[in-house]
């Protein structure tokens, strides 16, 4: 039995909600390879967006004094 056949056999017994999660996870795994899968359910789903790591790289910065305690909080320490 191939891996694809084993996967189908396991997925057959899942409820629709879990099958959707499996599909989304498979899309996430295939995102690195550039392989995109589309389905009819995806058109109607708000959860179809797949986040990609690194989108905000170098756009978020921290102040240099981030670790310092603000003057107004020192009296509570």
Write a compact overview of the structure shown.
Helix content is 43%, strand content 0%.
Structural class: mainly alpha
Output mean pLDDT.
80
Helix content: 40-55%
* Number of helices, counting only DSSP H or I runs of 4 residues or more: 4
Q: Write down the overall geometry.
A: elongated
What share of the residues does DSSP label as strand, in percent?
under 5%
Biggest sheet layout: none
The tally of strands reads 0
Question: Segments where pLDDT lies below 50 for 5+ residues?
Answer: none
Counted up, domains total 1
Taking all Cα atoms into account, the compactness measure Rg is 22 Å
Strand/helix succession:
HHHH
- Cα-to-Cα separation, first versus last residue: 65 Å
Fold and architecture overview:
The chain contains four helices and no strands. By secondary structure, the protein is mainly α. The protein has one domain (3-74). It is elongated, with a radius of gyration of 22 Å.
Topology:
Blueprint: H1 3-11, H2 16-30, H3 40-44, H4 71-74
Q: Main traits of this protein?
A:
77 residues; mainly alpha; 4 helices; 0% strand
